[in-house]
Structure formats: structure tokens, C-alpha cells
Specification:
This protein is an alpha/beta fold. It has two domains: 1-37; 50-286, Spore Coat Polysaccharide Biosynthesis Protein SpsA, Chain A (Alpha-Beta Complex), CATH 3.90.550. It is built from nine helices and ten strands.
């Protein structure tokens, strides 16, 4: 075979490979992401709100609490609700900031943890304490470095609960800043959201994000909380949802008023434990049910 014929042969193979990859990619977008693009909230025959317990875990987050906690406290929600702040062995002024807010907002409750949980890294232990302490069946979770995008966050998120719904997935967006790096980080965060929300729409829920996540206490206790992965530092959101979610018990809420917002990473050096820097596993890695 002459060199020209050999090169022409490989050009055809590469071209056909490109066509195949493009087709698969388009198929992926049309069959999966289109579900999210055309998602519409089903109208309710009866408008019903449920009591909600908002739970926030914080560890040395005084600055974030001073800036973001009011967003959870000024919610316009006509049904009974509470905000539980679990102060996880903080050494800063977190306790005093929360106590100052308690004088004005009676729905705010403070849980002080003064002892570390052995062999349970991360925030699983404080979060478990918050859930067990919660007065109401529906718990709504976010982080201290996140703020609700609107005063209707609780209302919009609880609207995701129907008769059989036990889990509601929300979106944790990032603040828009100047610069290319911010665009890159926000794109990565958006792409992650497109994946887990689209998979949930397809009945293949594999994760959620603790920045904006709601579920019922019953499903938490039925799966024995985080006991199956207590030894893992993370996973209080993605691993638990991967285990507990089914095709029938999960819903999504993508209303802009239901978003939470957090500060994105500012440079390539991602701080460990940052709300904005928790890069999640891909669907292929997580779908192991």
C-alpha cells in the first residue's frame, strides 16, 4: 500500500470516529440534558406548605455567618419553620454572632458541640445531630458559606415535595465575579448541576449537593444516616443521596428563587473543605446501585 493510500485510509477512519463521537454527544444532550431544559413544574391542585427545619453546620465560620446567616433568617415562609445552627467545635466568635441574631430571630436555634466525634471526619456527626434535633419532618440543608438567592428559598424548595417525594435536589450556584478563572469555575459547577439534575429527571439520581438539599427525616433514619460511610470525610450529600434515592422518591427544583449562592474559588489553589471547591464524582463513577 502506497503512503498516500495509507494516509487516506486513516483519514477516513478518523473522520468516521469523529462522526460517531459527535453523534453520541448529541444523543447524550438530546436524551438527557433536554429533560432538564424542558423541565416544567407540575401545577398543584392543592397548595400546601409544610413545616421545615433548615440546618446549617459551621466550624470557625464567624465571617460567613455574619454575612450569610441573615439570608436564611429573613425567609418569607408562611408556615412554621426553624433554623438550626450546629456550631461544630468552633474557636472563633461564631457562638456570639449566632446568639446576637437569636435576640431578633426567635426561629434560630443554636446547638453547641464541644467534643469531637471519634472516627467520624467531616460534618457528618454535626449534621446528624442537627437532623435528630430538628422539630419537623422536612429538613433543608445548606452551608455557612452559602446564602439563599431569594427570600422565597424555603418556599420554593418545599414545593418540590409531593405525596411520594422524600428527596428534593436544588442547585448551589456560585457568585459571578470578574475574570476568566471565575467563568471557568462557574462553568464547571453548572456542568455538574446539569448532570446530576438531568440524571435525576431520568430516574437515575446519583448525587446531590449539601449547599442546597432537602429530604425527610424518615428516609435519613431508614438508611441509618451516614453509618455506611462514616469513615469517609465527605459524602454527607452525594454518597447519602446515591444510597437513598430511587426513581420514585426524588424530585428537583430549578427555580432561580430556590438557588443558593456561594463564593467561588479565587485561584487554582483550591482550599480544602471549601463549599465552592467540592468537585463531585462523575455519574459513571457514582452510579453503583
Amino acid at each position: 500500500m502506497k503512503l498516500t493510500e495509507y494516509l487516506h485510509h486513516w483519514e477516513n477512519i478518523i473522520f468516521l470516529g469523529f462522526i460517531l463521537i459527535t453523534f453520541i454527544q448529541l444523543l447524550y444532550y438530546f436524551l438527557l440534558f433536554a429533560r432538564l431544559a424542558f423541565h416544567k413544574t407540575k401545577p398543584r391542585n392543592i397548595s400546601q406548605t409544610h413545616p421545615v427545619s433548615v440546618i446549617i453546620c459551621a466550624r470557625d465560620e464567624a465571617a460567613n455567618l455574619a454575612k450569610n446567616l441573615p439570608g436564611a433568617l429573613i425567609q418569607q415562609y408562611r408556615t412554621t419553620h426553624e433554623v438550626i445552627l450546629v456550631n461544630d467545635n468552633s474557636f472563633d466568635e461564631s457562638k456570639y454572632i449566632v446568639e446576637a441574631y437569636q435576640k431578633e430571630y426567635k426561629q434560630l436555634h443554636l446547638i453547641e458541640l464541644k467534643q469531637e466525634a471519634r472516627f467520624i471526619p467531616g460534618k457528618k456527626f454535626p449534621l446528624s445531630i442537627g437532623i435528630k434535633t430538628a422539630k419537623y419532618e422536612i429538613v433543608l440543608l445548606t452551608d455557612a458559606d452559602c446564602v439563599p438567592a431569594s427570600e422565597f428559598w424555603i418556599e420554593k424548595m418545599q414545593e418540590g415535595f409531593a405525596d411520594k417525594t422524600e428527596i428534593v435536589l436544588g442547585h448551589g450556584a456560585l457568585h459571578k465575579k470578574k475574570g476568566f478563572f471565575n467563568k471557568l469555575v462557574r462553568w464547571e459547577n453548572l456542568h455538574t448541576a446539569l448532570q446530576y439534575l438531568s440524571y435525576a429527571k431520568a430516574g437515575l439520581t446519583y448525587m446531590g449537593v449539601g449547599r442546597n438539599l432537602s429530604y425527610k427525616k424518615a428516609i435519613f433514619f431508614r438508611h441509618k444516616g451516614f453509618s455506611s460511610h462514616n469513615h469517609v470525610p465527605g459524602g454527607d450529600d452525594d454518597l447519602f443521596i446515591n444510597k437513598a434515592a430511587t426513581k420514585a422518591n426524588t424530585n428537583i427544583v430549578i427555580d432561580k428563587d430556590a438557588f443558593t449562592l456561594s463564593e467561588p474559588a479565587k485561584n487554582w489553589k483550591i482550599e480544602k473543605g471549601s463549599c465552592a471547591s467540592r468537585f463531585s464524582a462523575s455519574p459513571a463513577e457514582s452510579l453503583s446501585k
